[in-house]
Amino acid sequence: MEPRQSVSAQLFRDMMAGVCAPVTVVTTANDGVPVGTTVSSFASLSLDPPLVTVAFDRASKALEAIRVAGSFGINLLGHAQADLARLFATREVDRFAQTEWHFENGLPRLAGAAGWLECDVYDAVEGGDHILLIGHVVDASHAELPPLVYAYRTFGTHSHYDKRQRPEIIDTIAALSR
């Protein structure tokens, strides 16, 4: 069977723009120098072992740094961190000089993020003009914050995140005692 012709790049771009994606800043360090970039192609892959994926353009400096370091952090941004996403998507600026962060287990962790994953490189898979890194999650933490998402080339969050139903604390305690 002959390969079929691909859809146009513009049509594909326009279609994928409507897919909501979580916004993350992926970080690593080489010789104590922090490296980071905004990534919206992040997904869960496996529970056993716990694996996630992030995709990088083949020419990404962050990808090169992660391959050297062998580990990376994923900062899942909260709804109030759109400026941070833009900062880490900007080239030729000192990103870490313009935000609050600290090293956690040798990886740069951004202050105020909704979640944090510490990963060891598990595998790398070629995919067209990108490399899909598979990370083995070795540590994680999260805050109960609305997530930052990206769709139709703009940042936002779930429209009703703050209005969702939450069980009363007494219901939770009763459920745990059963």
TrEMBL record:
Top-rank lineage group of the source organism: Bacteria
Protein's UniProt keywords contain Chaperone: no
Domain Flavin reductase like: 16-157
Keywords, alphabetical: Oxidoreductase
Gene3D superfamilies (alphabetical): Electron Transport, Fmn-binding Protein, Chain A
Molecular function in Gene Ontology: FMN binding; riboflavin reductase (NADPH) activity
InterPro entries in UniProt: Flavin_Rdtase-like_dom, NADH-dep_flavin_reductase, Split_barrel_FMN-bd
Family listed: Belongs to the non-flavoprotein flavin reductase family.
Protein name: Flavin reductase
Native organism: Subtercola lobariae
